[in-house]
Structure formats: structure tokens, C-alpha cells
Amino acid sequence: LAALLAACASKPTGTPDNEPTLASLSTRKVEVKPDTVLAATPEQASAAYKRFLDIAPRAPQRAQALRRIGDLAMESADNQSATDGSNPDYKLAIAQYQSYLKTYPTDPNNDRVLYQLARAHELGGQLEVALATLDKLVASYPDTAFRDEAQFRRGELLFNTGQYPKSEQAYTSLIQRATPTPFHDRALYMHGWALYKQGRLEEGLQSFFGVLDLKIAGRGDAPLEALKDLSRADRELVEDTLRVTSVSLANLRGADSIPAYITSDVRRSYEFRAHEQLGELYIKQDRAKDAADAFA
User: Fold this and answer.
1) Distance in angstroms (rounded) separating the CA atoms of residues 107 and 115
2) How far is CA 266 from CA 214, 217, 262, in A?
3) d(Cα 238, Cα 82) in Å, to the nearest integer?
4) What is the CA angle 194-177-122, rounded to 5?
5) pTM higher than 0.90, yes or no?
6) Cα radius of gyration rounded to whole Å, the chain
7) Sign of CA dihedral 279, 281, 283, 285
8) Cβ contact 211:220 at 8 Å
9) pLDDT digits over 20-59, tens only?
């Protein structure tokens, strides 16, 4: 028995890769070679998913694979547009998403599929179909993560198709959020435009002055281009807002309409800009007397 125990102690057991004690593992060196990165196009990835669907008809990952094929078709069309500036064809993506919704009508991830489908229709020039898809999205999934962007895009599509009252409602749903969304400023601006298009100039001015409250209140009297903390996009938004504000005021009582909107110290800090822009508009219209009154 003693001889047998001695023999076992002197000879490792198991495979050659198995060391006899845990302590000996600390002295081993393992060389880890990084994998080679595989460069694949969306078309190649899509083909791989299709092969998976062919060989695994019952796999639980089929739904995910179908969604990914649609996403890859979108990506391929987007890449084409970014590369050569042409009008890409989104028909393949649309067909894929429609097939998915038909196959999995109750899937909890269908809000994302509807969002992508609406985007494909819009980019493909099918604005009415895109709008109908967004309507279905916000109606069927009121708490979706895409809610705010879907409402903003609904507002844009409704505005661009001349449905101004419905566009106003879509923008209202955004600007009335308890917590401002990333679309708040632009939605407020477009809300004013939707009212303007309906001839409700006084109400539209409330929205336009709301935009100015957010962007230039309390920033002094320096020219807009000198306001360093105002981004280019925000400066363009302010300039456009001041222009439509001037046109609205000119269609009301001109400079006499301004005091009704200067209701706080916040607005008094930029009141001069409203007079200044209105005066510039009158000059372009060859209305020298009105311009002089506005500047005065």
C-alpha cells in the first residue's frame, strides 16, 4: 500500500494539461491571441441571417433574425444615400418589416418595428403611409420609448401635408410634457408655425416668444453671432423665430402689438430684438414710416 501511494504521488493523473496541484497553476503562462476582426457588409450579414433561418426553422431566435434582416436592409439603403447622395430604395426593408409584423403580430417589440417601418416609408417618399404607421405606433404603444420622436415626426408629416390642426395637436403633446423632451424647443417653434398657418397669429406668437425665452433671455444686447454659448443650430432657430415673429407682428398692429407679449423681466431682456427685427422687415418692405416707429 505504501508503495502504491508513493507511485500515485510521483505521477500526475488525468490529461497532460491537468497539473497535479492548484498551487502549480500560478506558474503557468497562457497566451491569448486576439480574434481576427471580420469585416462584413450589411448584405453579407443579411445573407448569413437568411441561411440561419433556412437551417433552423424552429429556433427561438428566428424573430430576432427577421428583425435584424430588416434593420440591415435599412442600413444598406442609408449607406447608399450617404455614399453617393442618390435616392435609396427602402422597399426591401419595408417588405421585411411588414412580413415580420404579419408573422409576429403580438410581439412586445413591435413598437420598434413600427418605428423603423414608418421611417422606411418616410425616407422612401411614402409620407401618408409613414404617417399612418406612426399613428398606429402611438395609439398601440402609448408608453413606447419612441413616443416623443414619433409624435415629433407625426407633427412634421402632418404639417408638410397641410394638416395644420392635427400637426398642432402632435406638437402640443410634446410641449406639455411634465419633463421637457429633447424635442421641446423645436416642437414649440413648429407649434407656433402650425398656429400661424391657421391664421391664429396671436396664439402663434405665444409659442414663438416661448422659444426666445429659452434661447436668448438674459443674454444682453450683443449681436446673436457674438453669443458664444449659442450653438449654430440654436442661433439659426432664433433667427428664424425672430423672422416669423416679425411677419406675425406686421400682420397685426406692428410695434403696437409687442407690449402685450412682454410680460416678464425675462422678456424685457430681449424686447429690443423684437422691435429691431420688425424695423428691418419694414425696411425690406419699403415701409419707412413703420420702420422708423419700430426703431423708435
Assistant:
1) 14
2) 10, 6, 8
3) 29
4) 50
5) no
6) 31
7) negative
8) no
9) 677 777 777 888 888 877 677 888 888 888 898 888 888 8
